[in-house]
Design goal:
By secondary structure, this protein is an alpha+beta fold. The chain has one domain (10-155): Roll (Pdz3 Domain). Helix content is 33%, strand content 20%. The longest helix has 26 residues, at 149-174. It starts with 9 loop residues before the first strand and ends with a helix. This is PDZ domain-containing protein. Keywords: Nucleomorph.
């Protein structure tokens, strides 16, 4: 639709005014599918675990942001990577009337903290976390940090590089994964096990 594959039919409104509420939710989704989506989101979420990315911060001049009164008048959706984007904007809602640059397809990468002027990163956290952050925000206004899909792709590439570096550092610090024997649950050297298999194979001739 806008460059994302979305979880089926999970559309939600933002705000407590029933007259402006968008709601269309089909809940007949199997547990297995939910589990698969959850695991996938958690995996992709881990690439954004750098401290600077996850820390609470203030809005900077480099951010494209919008300050919108509740109810926001937008529909948010979640991609397979756990990123949350704007799927629809109510032309008569507060977001459309805010005079900020808000576009369909924009990815929400930051939301106001519960109190104050700071924002939390929402990269890869999923729709539930973003909706909760907006709901518990104190006051009538919410700040959203927005990125286009192209801008987000660039950030994601950098985050993947950082994640690979963290994995390499962890392996250097703690060693390679330990392979356990499925019966005795004791550590096994995979190289020695492979050598024994080869020796046994040649003994047949």
């Amino acid at each position: 639709m806008i460059g994302f594959q979305v979880t089926p039919f999970k559309l939600f409104s933002l705000g407590n005014n029933k007259k402006n509420t968008f709601f269309n939710s089909k809940k007949k989704i199997t547990f297995k599918k939910n589990l698969s989506t959850t695991l996938k989101s958690q995996y992709n979420y881990n690439i954004f675990l750098n401290g600077n990315d996850r820390a609470k911060r203030t809005v900077t001049n480099e951010d494209r942001y919008a300050i919108v009164q509740k109810p926001l008048g937008i529909i948010l959706e979640e991609g397979d990577d756990g990123m949350v984007f704007i799927a629809k904007i109510d032309p008569k809602g507060n977001a459309a009337r805010s005079n900020f640059d808000i576009r369909i397809g924009d990815i929400v990468v930051g939301v106001s903290a519960t109190f104050g002027d700071e924002v939390w990163s929402t990269r890869g956290v999923g729709l539930d976390r973003v909706l909760k952050s907006i709901k518990i925000r104190s006051g009538d206004f919410v700040t959203l940090i927005l990125e286009s899909q192209e801008e987000n792709d660039g950030q994601k590439e950098q985050a993947e590089e950082n994640a690979n570096k963290r994995r390499a550092d962890a392996r250097e610090k703690f060693g390679d994964p330990v392979v356990l024997d499925p019966i005795t649950l004791t550590p096994v050297d995979p190289n020695k096990k492979q050598e024994k298999k080869k020796q046994g194979f040649f003994k047949l001739f």
